[in-house]
Here is the input.
Amino acid sequence: MKLATRFPVLTRSIAGAAFAAVLSGQAVDTKNWTIADDHRNMLEQLGIKELRSGPSGVESAPNHANYDESKANPYPNLPDALVLKDGKKVTTKAMWWNQRRPEIVEDFEREVLGRVPKNVPKVTWEVTKTAEANVGSHAVIGKQLLGHVDNSSDTEIKVDIQMTIVIPAGLKSPAPAMMMFGGRGIPEVAFPAPVFPGRGGPAGAGRGPMGPPPGSDPPALEQLIADGWAVVSISPGSIQADNGAGLTKGIIGLVNHGQPRKPDDWGSLRAWAWGASRGLDYLETEKAINAKQVGIEGVSRYGKAALVTMAFDTRFAVVLIGSSGEGGAKLHRRNWGEAVENLTGAGEYHWMAGNFLKYGAAEATFGSKNAGDLPVDAHELLALCAPRLTFVSYGVPEKGDAKWLDHQGSFMAAVAAQPVFRLLGAKDLGVKEDYHTARMPPVNVGLLDGQLAWRQHDGGHTDGPNWKYFIPWADKFLPHRAEESR
Here is the structure.
């Protein structure tokens, strides 16, 4: 059913009453709050009467997504990451850090991803289990942790962040660490966990201890441990639910005392990133880990979250962004595969700030808006990572990394981010063409010479085949050698 026809006729008995209560300052009963209730409430707060339908990922559907490159760039010109809002060109590092970067951050917080409230409660970390084990031929120490979020302001909502750490045993010096959204550690300290998108199986095949299919690379955990890295897994679902009904629960609901969001409140992507930052707070107290060399990684929706984490928390040293698509490294302005209208629909809007729904509006009190009206785009999210190590990873559609993700649009975003990396003294992809004309390199040809890197492997919806390239690339810049750690 098309969103444009569905949402105007949604029942107003719950959401309409909730909106009236919001306007009057009264509390809303959200105990039986549904996705439709929450979505409708935000539409009413914004004055949106009708949303455009997002394209279908089924190519035989009447409203199928566009895969014709000649129609892919209806808004071909991106906002210039190095031009201030007053039109002045950014020419120095100081101008970037003091003027332009804050402008970009403000636009993302207000219109796209939402703001982290100033009154987010404190997190107290507790080590709940410790165990010795082996990963491949290497002895390790595993720790299971819970990050207890202070819920004294609303005891009905409880948030305990689940995180595990696997550290090589016998370290001579602190190890770098890779934090993974939904990654796998070792069974001895693992939490019961659901299936995660892009992980290749229920136990994170290709990432965790159950191992990859025969003939493929060792799991990421094994590759990282063998190279002297610690591996951290953090559970996004323990921070914030991955659906709209959960916005009145989790960390977002706790801060809001179970009430509906305001239009510039944070969405799940920003909440997951906040949780990762609180995990890094703990790692800064862990003597076995070099907190200046902590990375963040994720695949699919968690690839989006990894990019958001890196962009907003400059303490992270490196990011591996796996198959992130729309809302991640893909340009919003591209008409290819998943579109802004998919993110504004009921299935995905919870990732974003409420204000983002305006850009899918067909009819509203403010008229209508589209992707071309966004003040920022994905190249600027990548630019916020500069000059730190930023690796954009994709697979191929033939193996399941769907065309929907817009690999070319993500490459264009990376190319458009190059000038910021260069300004800050970092080496970029080495692509000389402008983002309008730059084309992806062949599959399995990596652009890995600079702090900004790209590689499209020949596998599916996973970053598994890129770990053996990512690890030496990261080691080169950090720097780090396994033999020096042990």
